[in-house]
Amino acid sequence: MAKDEMTKQFKLVGTRVLRPDGLDKVTGRARYGADFAMPGMLFGAVVRSPHAHAKIVRIDASKALALDGVKAVVTRDDFPKGLSGDAWDLQENSMAGDVALYDGHAVAAVAATSALVAKDAARLVEVTYEVLPHVTDVDAAMQPDAPAIRPGAANHTVPDGMPPNVVKYVEFGRGDVAAGFAAADLVRERTYRTEATHQGYIEPQACVGQLGSDGKGEMWVTTQGQWFVRKMCADVLGLEVAQLRVTPSEIGG
Question: Engineering a disulfide at 234: which of 120, 151, 239, 253 sits with its beta carbon 3.0 to 4.6 angstroms away?
């Protein structure tokens, strides 16, 4: 009997499985994150830093707030204070504090009655920057004399004496690696470089949320990990996890 001859009938393997979400997707009934809406919903637009590393000297939102339809302009000052650990990391990445840490780092966000008004208002937010020393190469950033982006951010995994921008250190090994190299007939060493990759889904990333008068919120998010999203959002907002409910929207593309 050939090794590849199937000797067992499987319930799913080797069959034409009917996708439970297939019909809704091909007929347009599926609701993705950007399809959710509710009465009185506000729309957001983000103001981002054009610099790789810069001190935020001043944010003037007066022109944006004067625009008809603008309800709020949010900066880091509006976030909960005193966070630490992972919650602080998340907050720092969500919205820049005193310093923008990368090109595209959010420095403010606008809430308005329409997406167009929000985008127009975001362009009216005036941010004064003081550009700081920076490097845009990973190898250069890991040198001892590289500008430190987040001093003190290194966690417990980083050995003493590592460059300041190394914030996490992971080493993989199995068995006696040194002995293995010593006994090898041939050792080849190479440095491999690759571009960032992405799955390239068609659906746009989106989030719709509401907060009730009882302090509890509900969110509809384009995600496969609603429990992780719930914890992250609760941490950043300074809420208890039980105060948030997260529902994943249709995913795919």
Answer: 239
What pLDDT digit, counting tens, does each position of 5-25 carry? 656 788 888 888 888 888 888
Beta strands in the chain (DSSP E): 43-48, 54-60, 70-74, 99-100, 106-112, 126-131, 207-211, 217-221, 244-248
Q: Is the dihedral of CA 104, 105, 110, 115 positive or negative?
A: positive
Can you spell out the DSSP letters for 137-204? -HHHHTSTTSPPSSTT---TTSPTT--TT---------S-HHHHHHH-S----------------SSP
Amino acid at 145: D
Residues of the chain with CATH 3.30.365.10: 204-253
- All CATH 3.90.1170.50 domain ranges of the chain, comma separated, are 40-134
**What CATH number does the domain located at 204-253 have?**
3.30.365.10
Length of the chain: 253
Rounded to two decimals, the pTM is: 0.80
- Of 89, 72, 195, 189, which Cα lies nearest the Cα of 125? 72
CATH code that applies to domain 40-134: 3.90.1170.50
237 exposed, middle or buried (CB, 10 Å; 0-12, 13-18, 19+)?
middle
DSSP-based three-state secondary structure for 253: coil
What is the per-residue pLDDT across 21-68, written as a single tens digit (0 to 9) for each?
A: 888 888 988 888 888 888 999 999 999 999 999 999 999 999 999 999
Q: Is 47 helix (H, G, I), strand (E, B) or coil?
A: strand
